[in-house]
Amino acid sequence: MGSAGTVLWRVAITGVLVGSRVQGFGGTARPCALTSGHRRGPGLHVQCSCRVNESHRPEFIELKRWLKDRKFEDTGLVPACFPGTGRGLMSRTSLQEGQMIISLPESCLLTTDTVIRSSVGPYIKKWKPPPSPLLALCTFLVSEKHTGDQSLWKSYLDILPSSYTCPVCWEPEVVDLLPEPLRTKAEEQRAHVQDLFVSSRAFFTSLQPLFAESVDNIFSYSAFLWAWCTVNTRAVYLRSTRQDSLSAEPDTCALAPYLDLLNHSPHVQVKAAFNEKTGCYEIRTASRCRKHEEVFICYGPHDNQRLLLEYGFVSACNPHACVPVPGETLVKYLPTADKQVHRKMSILKERGFTENLTFGWDGPSWRLLTALKLLCLEAEKFTSWKKVLLGEVISDANEKTSLGVARKICSDFIEETRAVLRKVSDMKEGNMLLVNQLALVEALWMEELRILQASAEIVSSL
User: Fold this and answer.
1) 251-261 as b/e: b if 16+ CB within 10 A
2) Of 82, 107, 87, whose CA–CA distance to 26 is shortest?
3) pLDDT tens figures, 157-166
């Protein structure tokens, strides 16, 4: 196995997650599938009035025994239930900066090498075209879960969530309530998973000699979706030696038992990598943590739309959270008499100024204001468009006009957000089966409303 790329994470003491997993972790830096990931169990997070040590539970006793047999040495973290985040890992002692919190031996990691050495390995080796690393991992998970008590990975499989809260698992009518472009991304992700499943059916059929039951029942779409979400939300980054029997897609995902019980906080920092000398995947704190507090990692500087799409939760007061402004929206706020609108938009598109336009906790982004300043240029000032993109002030009138448009866009977004929240509230009352999915949508829109209100105050003060 090759060395893993170094990943910056975080460890903290506080954090509030909505829709986070009931059974621990999310993903760390997961380059496979679409982006990176995290997950939770069914429904919303477990509500606890205080932290509760869960190391006595049978599934965790068995997991610890299984890990110990594979040379894992306990570093003082125990599973516990926390208010706000649900199940996570608690430190039994105070943690100092630079201290090792987890050192997971390679023998504990579930990689494509694990898959190739398993009973499905020979079938993967002879299948053409070669399956992708992601498909190999998903196939192994479905197979091992079906094997049940006979699986060598049962102790790990038993603590995995039985379902996930990512939009790829939602009902279409709930996905329709997501803001753009998140809705589009969620629909594309669902189509990606469905296409992968359909295109892999012949491969699944080839595995029939391994099972007494029909593979059509074992490798159902729901089973495959569960496996895909497990990898997409829980895997850590680990660059493996390329397997000749797998496709040339990047083989950089590994499932890391116990380590993946760690929850996410955007406010903390750790360092993580595979240590070639020790043969372990190691995480060290970059800050202190008090005794009996929850230990967190950070899955990356992701906004809430990304966290919800990839991990199935929303992080309250996320400093990276923002509200995207589609580039095409800007044209709606310009005077219809402006004959240079199309030329201005063309310039913005050519130079990448119709992407990553946002409102944040600190107001409209520089890119958004810059795009608006160019769009608001008077005809006689249009030749100065290059100076605008360099950040120069063209005129007081241009500054005032662009801020006025930003204020109007923000105001309209606030009203649209409130309208969606009213619709979500009505749907929650009428459909109890979708209440958990709708609660996540509501949490996302509520955070976006707070961001827009903060931005509105800042723009009004300029």
Assistant:
1) bbbbbbbbbbb
2) 87
3) 999 999 999 9
In DSSP terms, 224 is beta-bridged to none
Is pLDDT of 19 > 70?
no
Using CA atoms, how far apart are residues 262 and 38, in angstroms rounded to an integer? 10
| CA 44 – CA 446 distance, rounded (Å) | 16
**Other Cβ atoms within 10 Å of 408 Cβ, number:** 13
Distance, in Å, from the CA atom of 217 to the CA atom of 223, rounded to the nearest integer, reads: 9
Give which of 51, 43, 37, 9 is closest to 23, Cα–Cα.
Answer: 43
Q: Strand runs (DSSP E) across 298-366, as ranges?
A: 314-315, 322-324, 358-360, 363-364
Q: Which two tokens stand for residue 136?
A: 């190999």
pLDDT, tens only, 115-157: 999 999 999 999 999 999 999 999 999 999 999 999 999 999 9
Give the separation between CA 297 and CA 54, rounded to whole angstroms: 20
In DSSP terms, 95 is beta-bridged to: 289
**Which residue matches tokens 């909505």?**
18
Instruction: For CA atoms 307, 197, 41, 430, give the dihedral sign.
Output: positive
Decide: 389 and 369 in contact? Cβ < 8 Å.
no
Name, in order, each residue with C-beta under 8 angstroms of 435's C-beta and a sequence gap of 6 or more: 428
Q: Could you tell me the end-to-end alpha-carbon distance of the chain, in angstroms, rounded to an integer?
A: 55
- CA distances 289 to 40, 75, 97, Å, are 24, 14, 8
Q: Which amino acid does the sequence have at 250? A: P
The model's pTM is: 0.86
- Rounded to whole angstroms, how far apart are CA atoms 86 and 106? 28
The residues, ordered by sequence, that sit 6+ positions from 267 with a Cβ below 8 Å of its Cβ are: 10, 12, 14, 15, 298, 319
